[in-house]
């Protein structure tokens, strides 16, 4: 009885580093004014509305004992037990085994409906060593620093060089090469939004190296700081010298800029150690089999890996856990739908969507059988609705479904919602990312402050309830979410 576990093995050599992007849209409630009458028949509206009671049932059950406590207790136990789960680490693999075991624990009580398996792939394994930045001139000061993922180390003795501070790539381009050569470049870009600022994290080192710089620092990507440093993946361009790259606090970045702007000669000494190789990791796939169309899948997902600092409680422990709880929670409620509800715990999202890329490659023939793909990787604060990619017809259908969830009924439109699932939505698979009140997300993102203290039980549980109920409706409707 119970579960079948398959450990499939395959070494997918997919190592094209993509930007780790956890885009966040602070969308105002956009009026969804597409002419949906063209897309939604009376019958379909009627059918969607017939799910009102079951939606209410799922929302209520998931937000009361025992389910809410099962979810939150297991979530906090997981984070406390493993902490950070960086790509390629032993602790990440142990945490994957643990989630497989946990699925078996909650999935084997009745009929054979939940299956869990893992699929292997090769992932980057970058390990941070000792890191320090000292200001030598105009006065001595220790500057807190955090290396960026995949950064090369400095020589053992460190790099001591004069600092040059720029606000943008444009400013850097304007400088004569001789002004940059042999120096350390600090990108002190004012925070506007993650998408714009993250370009400096990802490409800063290569842009500066092209001008002859010997190391780069960026101002940490956050709108708010209590002297926190924020890491994340960076990506070297081919054919450019690889130079060390780190992030410093907003506070120190502003200090260095003020000194530089006053014409002070600023000298820094940077020491950053790290190692890099590759390891095997696994995506985890959990299926609650559909009774009518088992080959059709509604996928709900989050990533189990995290950066190496903090606890990965918010990014993406919360999103991963509520996604894990969709098939498991529905099963505990004895709710099986027409299509298969598949939860995927992606591995190695942080170094560049490596797990999702391997899954896409391996399952490329099955894209038409993905009815809808969802991801929670932008926080599990109070849920607001969905950020949706797809045709007008798809968005109209999702908008109609969201009406069952008032007030969690905001629909924003985005061709590339989320992070891992953008690989799928770009290929025409309709999908959505969880909208939530994540205005403070980047305060904690990729920093030592990403701990369970960021999370609120009622909010996480409400996200889980919404996530499960939406998945249930989409996987049970008589028609698929339409494509173009
Ligand atoms: C998972 O379960 C297996 C079999 O019971 C056990 O050997 C293993 O130690 C468990 N792993 C974790 C990480 O809990
Ligand atoms: C969908 O799944 C079924 C059953 O596995 C398979 O026969 C079919 O080829 C798949 N279709 C597509 C387009 O993926
Ligand atoms: Zn993430």
UniProtKB/TrEMBL annotation:
Assembly mode: Homodimer. The monomeric form is inactive while the homodimer is active.
Return the protein name.
Carboxypeptidase Q
Query: Where is the protein found, in the record's own terms?
Result: Endoplasmic reticulum; Golgi apparatus; Lysosome; Secreted
Which species?
Leptidea sinapis
Family, per entry: Belongs to the peptidase M28 family.
Which biological process annotations from GO are given for this protein? peptide catabolic process; proteolysis
Q: Where is the signal peptide?
A: 1-22
> What PANTHER family does the record tag this protein with?
CARBOXYPEPTIDASE Q (PTHR12053:SF3), PROTEASE FAMILY M28 PLASMA GLUTAMATE CARBOXYPEPTIDASE-RELATED (PTHR12053)
Q: What GO molecular functions are on record for this protein? A: carboxypeptidase activity; metal ion binding; metallodipeptidase activity
Q: Which GO terms describe its cellular component?
A: endoplasmic reticulum; extracellular space; Golgi apparatus; lysosome
Name the predominant localization. Answer: endoplasmic reticulum
Pfam families recorded for this chain?
A: Peptidase_M28
Q: What is the lineage of its organism?
A: Eukaryota, Metazoa, Ecdysozoa, Arthropoda, Hexapoda
Top-rank taxon of the source lineage equals: Eukaryota
List residues of the Peptidase M28 domain: 283-469
Q: Which UniProt keywords apply?
A: Carboxypeptidase, Endoplasmic reticulum, Glycoprotein, Golgi apparatus, Hydrolase, Lysosome, Metal-binding, Metalloprotease, Protease, Secreted, Signal, Zinc, Zymogen
Q: Indicate yes or no for the key word Glycoprotein.
A: yes
Q: Which InterPro entries match?
A: CPQ (IPR039866), Peptidase_M28 (IPR007484)
């Amino acid at each position: 009885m119970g579960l079948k576990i398959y450990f499939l093995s395959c070494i997918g050599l997919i190592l094209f580093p993509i930007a780790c992007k956890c885009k966040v849209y602070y969308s105002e409630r956009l009026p969804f004014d597409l002419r949906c009458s063209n897309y939604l028949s009376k019958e379909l509206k009627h059918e969607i509305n017939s799910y009102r009671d079951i939606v209410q049932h799922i929302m209520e059950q998931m937000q009361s004992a025992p389910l809410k406590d099962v979810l939150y207790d297991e979530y906090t136990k997981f984070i406390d037990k493993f902490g950070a789960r960086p790509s390629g680490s032993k602790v990440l693999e142990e945490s994957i085994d643990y989630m497989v075991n946990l699925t078996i624990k909650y999935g084997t009580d009745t009929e054979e409906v939940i299956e869990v398996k893992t699929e292997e792939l090769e992932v980057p394994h970058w390990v941070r060593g000792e890191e320090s930045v000292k200001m030598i001139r105009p006065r001595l000061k220790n500057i807190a620093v955090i290396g960026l993922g995949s950064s090369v180390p400095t020589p053992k003795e460190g790099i001591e060089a004069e600092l040059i501070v720029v606000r943008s790539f444009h400013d850097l381009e304007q400088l004569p090469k001789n002004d940059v050569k042999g120096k350390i470049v600090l990108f002190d870009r004012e925070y506007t939004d993650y998408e714009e600022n993250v370009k400096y994290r990802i490409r800063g080192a290569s842009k500066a190296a092209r001008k002859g710089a010997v190391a780069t620092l960026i101002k940490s990507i956050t709108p708010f700081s209590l002297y926190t440093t924020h890491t994340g993946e960076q990506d070297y361009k081919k054919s450019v010298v690889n130079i060390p790259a780190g992030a410093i606090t907003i506070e120190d970045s502003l200090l260095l800029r003020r000194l530089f702007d006053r014409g002070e000669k600023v000298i820094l000494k940077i020491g950053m150690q790290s190692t890099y190789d590759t390891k095997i990791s696994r995506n985890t796939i959990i299926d609650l089999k559909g009774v009518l169309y088992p080959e059709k899948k509604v996928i709900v997902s989050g990533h189990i890996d995290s950066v190496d600092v903090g606890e990965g409680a918010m990014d993406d422990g919360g999103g991963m856990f509520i996604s894990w709880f969709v098939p498991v929670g529905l099963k505990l409620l004895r709710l099986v739908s027409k299509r298969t509800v598949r939860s995927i715990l992606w591995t190695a999202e942080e170094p560049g969507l490596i797990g999702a890329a391997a899954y896409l490659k391996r399952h490329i023939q099955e894209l038409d059988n993905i009815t809808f793909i969802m991801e929670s990787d932008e926080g599990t604060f109070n849920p607001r609705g969905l950020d949706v990619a797809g045709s007008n017809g798809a968005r109209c259908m999702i908008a109609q479904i969201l009406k069952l969830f008032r007030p969690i009924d905001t629909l924003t439109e985005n061709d590339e919602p989320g992070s891992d699932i953008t690989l799928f939505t770009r290929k025409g698979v309709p999908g959505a990312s969880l909208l939530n009140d994540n205005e403070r997300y980047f305060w904690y993102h990729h920093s030592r402050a990403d701990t369970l203290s960021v999370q609120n039980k009622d909010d996480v549980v409400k996200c889980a309830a919404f996530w499960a109920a939406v998945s249930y409706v989409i996987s049970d409707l008589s028609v698929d979410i339409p494509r173009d």
